[in-house]
């Protein structure tokens, strides 16, 4: 069989970084080719070369054996290359149907440009039905949750005939059910002989659906292998370029006084929630996406208001709906949606990292530039942030690297209570371990940590205690060592 | 399954302001609430409504157009000079409209291709248009031979079946713009530009082309406004459009059109323009001078934003209540 697509010597340089260094890669019809590598390794860039967003500086793309330049996203579309990007690309105020057909609308009258709304809605309904997505196509995107939006993104990509589909970290915001749905969709695309690239930092997934794996590091191809010829440990070692024998380096310390106490907190998404976190403790908050964990965090920090209930920090009442006060009292929240809430894309890494801690860096009204720079650089090193300078603007970083910058920014604050919402989403396996080590240091210095995570391994590996939420309520509390994967899942799936 | 719901934040603040202003003048300005005066408010609103449509669409697409007032002037002066030179009326009007369109295109080009911020590009155009209009007209109103062009008088002051032709043309143009906006790709692409232009690019649609389309449309509306203004006032005054851009921006904003939110409301924009025309009319009935109008227009902008903020909060409280009820 001939490869449907072949890349030869693809090289792409951005100012100061060689994002891709002479990459060779091919893919066959019906194959799932998974890409693995650290944040900033070049995975998304490579796929964007395929989809016509970036032009390679050197190298050739062969489609069906013929050299084929892909100068624009339109050209890629015409070749049947469909891309599901790492970031959501939907228009909030337009309906699901209008989003699915964005850029290739259906017309009643082509000459006059009159759109056929009914037909688009019908077609959208059909597409959603074949993908088993239970969403009404006339609903605006803003009414949907992140997971549902991700599914619409997939529907959009598959609304036109596809030969090659690229999934760039599609599962980072999906629930387990939706992930299963996605995997069976991938299986059915496989039967139709569609070729797929699949990128994920959840390495387990790669073994579940991949046929071959390619590992990238610093823009270079390290290896391509059938997935059956590699073990998880080998894969991790190749990605991180070192052996990671202990992924979850957490040593429990004796818990101190109660730092956070939530009593009967109730609002739109949270039902009568009570919990505590002590100094020196990492408390895991597990549950499915949409269980109300993020909403709880936002309410505690004061981003969202709540009705009944109260929040105490070290016994003192934290005022409702006043994030500034909450921050002053010593709460720090790492938000889930980093792109919009956590990062100023036009500012540099240094500015982004230090903006939350600026007050500590001021002396007599002057900013201590040296100290600011040093601190920023320390975190760039610790988290292995893939950049050549702390002055690079955040918008130019890879998806996962942006996450690292935000995490670094929050780690720099001196707080009594850290709330981390999905601290390692989209972050590569090596840096995950560095983040865990930093958490560990924080609790040793007597901070309290509430960690929201959908990654069960992470929750089990890092938590001293675990609360499981479902349907907006706490279903179960597990003491250290009590929880198992099956037990946690059982309660996570419990409704109301 | 989720459903589309009405959010108070979708309601333009112009609705509230209009009702308050209208009731206030109806009560306190004698002669305001008469059929004759209401009709004249509507006629006075025609040109601001045309401008506000263009400006609202630009704002929704995350742009800004400060040039429409002076571009209107330039179009009017161009048309007036050609009439004075004896050019056939249809041709002179066409060239007038095209002048505005070309200015709009240039705005779009500066923003989309030369990457100038819309604020800067249209500020430059605002001055260029004003400078040209004053030079061409030698800073004096341009008069033409009225008797030679009876059709202009029909457009400016005539009526069919008791309805002013001037208003009829205005409404027709507005209807076409609204129809095109809601029935073609224009709305989708404008919302996408406003929400996140990267999405448009990744969907295989040319961002630059659509930015140019949007600014050109705004220029077109200013051009149409310019020649209609000629017909209405029977001369081309080189200062006639000054300040209209501010009214258009304020009208668009209180009509629920903001930058970078990825949505908009053309009907709200029209109501916004009518609200400002109503204020102008009411104040002049009460013998308040022009400067008070400026003060009030500025204040209305602030009030509009405050009302919007209020809506945001009410919407928020509503959500909380629902939540408590369900818990
Ligand atoms: N538009 C850009 N301008 C400048 N540099 C860029 C740009 N896009 C990517 N880069 C750089 O290219 C390198 C590769 O980035 P890329 O997004 O491909 O990484 P990735 O493998 O997808 O990482 P992640 O797992 O975090 O998504 C990074 O060093 C990044 O900073
Ligand atoms: Mg990426």
Label the structural class of chain A: alpha/beta
Number of discrete domains of chain B: 1
Oligomeric status of the shown chains?
heterodimer
Helix content of chain B: over 70%
The side-by-side strand order for the widest beta sheet of chain A comes to 6-9-10-3-11-12
Please describe the biggest sheet of chain B, giving its number of strands, its sense, and whether it closes into a barrel: 2 strands, antiparallel
Beta-strand level of the residues of chain A, as a percent range?
15-25%
Give me the count of strands of chain A.
24
| Name of the CATH class of chain B | Mainly Alpha
Q: What form of chain A results from the Cα inertia axes?
A: globular
Separation of the first and last Cα atoms of chain B: 19 Å
Largest sheet of chain A: 6 strands, mixed
Q: Work out the strand percent of chain B.
A: under 5%
Write the layout of secondary structure elements.
The complex is a heterodimer of chains A (496) and B (327).
Chain A: E1 5-14, E2 17-27, E3 32-37, H1 43-50, E4 58-63, E5 66-67, H2 73-78, E6 81-84, H3 96-100, E7 107-109, E8 114-115, H4 117-130, H5 146-157, E9 164-168, H6 176-191, E10 195-199, H7 203-209, E11 212-217, E12 220-226, H8 232-240, E13 258-265, E14 273-278, E15 282-287, H9 293-301, E16 310-313, E17 316-317, H10 323-329, E18 331-334, H11 338-341, H12 349-354, H13 358-361, E19 362-363, E20 366-367, H14 369-382, H15 399-411, E21 417-421, H16 429-444, E22 448-452, H17 456-462, E23 465-470, E24 473-478, H18 485-492
Parallel strand pairs in A: 3-10, 3-11, 6-9, 9-10, 15-22, 15-23, 18-21, 21-22
Antiparallel strand pairs in A: 1-2, 1-4, 4-5, 7-8, 11-12, 13-14, 13-16, 16-17, 19-20, 23-24
Chain B: H1 13-28, H2 35-60, H3 68-84, H4 89-112, H5 118-137, H6 150-157, E1 159-160, E2 163-164, H7 165-183, H8 185-202, H9 207-233, H10 244-254, H11 266-285, H12 290-326
Antiparallel strand pairs in B: 1-2
């Amino acid at each position: 069989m001939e490869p449907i697509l072949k890349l030869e010597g693809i090289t792409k340089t951005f100012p100061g970084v060689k994002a891709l260094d002479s990459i060779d890669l091919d893919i066959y019809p019906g194959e799932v080719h998974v890409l693995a590598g650290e944040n900033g390794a070049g995975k998304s860039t490579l796929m964007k070369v395929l989809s016509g967003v970036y032009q390679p500086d050197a190298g050739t793309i062969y489609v069906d054996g013929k050299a084929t330049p892909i100068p624009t996203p339109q050209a890629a579309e015409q070749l049947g290359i469909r891309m599901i990007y790492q970031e959501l690309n939907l228009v909030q105020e337009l309906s699901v149907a209008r989003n699915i057909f964005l850029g290739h609308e259906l017309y009643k009258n082509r000459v006059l440009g009159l759109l056929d709304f009914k037909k688009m809605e019908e077609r959208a309904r059909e597409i959603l039905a074949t993908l088993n997505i239970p969403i009404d196509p006339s609903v605006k995107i803003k009414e949907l949750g992140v997971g549902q939006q991700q599914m619409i993104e997939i529907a959009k990509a598959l609304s036109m005939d596809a030969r090659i589909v690229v999934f760039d970290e599609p599962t980072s915001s999906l629930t387990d059910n939706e992930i299963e749905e996605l995997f069976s969709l991938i299986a059915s695309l496989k039967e139709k002989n569609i070729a797929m690239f699949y990128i994920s930092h959840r390495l387990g997934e790669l073994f579940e659906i991949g046929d071959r794996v390619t590992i990238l590091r610093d823009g270079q191809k390290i290896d391509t292998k059938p997935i059956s010829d590699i073990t998880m440990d080998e894969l991790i070692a190749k990605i991180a370029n070192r052996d990671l024998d202990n992924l979850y380096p957490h040593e429990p310390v004796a818990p101190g006084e109660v730092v956070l106490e939530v009593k009967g907190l109730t609002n739109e998404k949270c039902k009568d929630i009570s919990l505590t976190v002590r100094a020196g403790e990492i408390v895991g908050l597990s549950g499915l996406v949409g269980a109300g964990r993020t909403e709880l965090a936002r309410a505690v920090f004061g981003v969202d208001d709540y009705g009944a209930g109260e929040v105490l920090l070290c016994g003192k009442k934290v005022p409702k709906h006043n994030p500034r006060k909450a921050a002053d009292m010593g709460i720090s929240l790492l938000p889930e949606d980093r792109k919009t809430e956590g990062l100023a894309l036009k500012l540099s890494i240094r500015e982004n990292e230090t903006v939350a801690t600026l007050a500590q860096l001021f002396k007599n009204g002057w900013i201590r530039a040296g100290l600011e720079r040093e601190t920023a650089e320390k975190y760039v090193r610790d988290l292995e942030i893939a950049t050549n300078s702390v002055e690079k603007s955040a918008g130019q970083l890879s998806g996962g690297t942006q996450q690292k910058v935000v995490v670094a920014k929050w780690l720099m604050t001196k707080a009594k209570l850290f709330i981390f919402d999905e601290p390692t989403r989209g972050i590569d396996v090596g840096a995950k371990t560095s983040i865990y080590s930093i958490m560990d240091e924080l609790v040793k210095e007597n901070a309290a940590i509430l960690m929201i995570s959908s990654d069960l391994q992470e929750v089990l590996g890092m938590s001293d205690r675990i609360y499981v939420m479902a349907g907006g309520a706490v279903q179960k509390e597990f003491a250290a060592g009590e929880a198992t994967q099956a037990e946690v899942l059982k309660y996570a799936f419990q409704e109301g | 399954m989720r459903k589309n719901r009405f959010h108070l934040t979708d309601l333009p603040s112009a609705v509230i302001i209009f009702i308050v202003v209208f009731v206030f003048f109806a009560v306190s300005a004698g002669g305001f609430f008469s059929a004759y005066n209401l009709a004249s408010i509507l006629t006075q609103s025609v040109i601001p409504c045309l401008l506000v449509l263009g400006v609202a669409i630009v704002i929704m697409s995350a742009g800004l157009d400060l040039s429409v007032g002076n571009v209107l002037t330039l179009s009017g002066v161009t048309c007036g000079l050609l009439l004075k030179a004896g050019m056939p009326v249809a041709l002179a009007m066409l060239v007038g409209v095209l002048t505005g369109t070309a200015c709009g295109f240039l705005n779009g080009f500066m923003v989309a291709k030369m990457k100038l911020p819309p604020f800067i590009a249209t500020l430059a155009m605002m001055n260029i248009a004003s400078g040209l209009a004053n030079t061409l007209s030698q800073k004096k109103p341009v008069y033409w031979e009225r008797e030679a062009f009876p059709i202009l008088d029909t457009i400016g002051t005539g009526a069919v079946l008791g309805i002013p032709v001037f208003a009829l043309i205005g409404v027709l143009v507005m209807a076409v713009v609204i129809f095109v906006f809601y029935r073609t790709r224009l709305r989708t692409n404008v919302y996408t530009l406003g929400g996140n232009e990267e999405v448009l690019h990744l969907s295989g649609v040319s961002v630059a082309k659509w930015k140019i389309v949007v600014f050109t449309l705004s220029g077109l509306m200013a051009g149409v406004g310019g020649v209609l203004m000629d017909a209405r006032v029977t001369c081309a005054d080189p200062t006639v459009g000054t300040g209209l851009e501010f009214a258009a921006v304020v009208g668009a904003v209180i009509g629920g059109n903001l930058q970078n939110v990825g949505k908009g409301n053309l009907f709200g924009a029209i109501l916004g323009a009518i609200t400002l025309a109503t204020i102008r009319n009411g104040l002049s009935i009460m013998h308040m001078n022009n400067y008070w109008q400026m003060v009030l227009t500025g204040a209305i902008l602030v009030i509009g934003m405050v009302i919007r903020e209020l809506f945001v909060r009410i919407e928020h409280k509503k959500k909380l209540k629902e939540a408590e009820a369900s818990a």
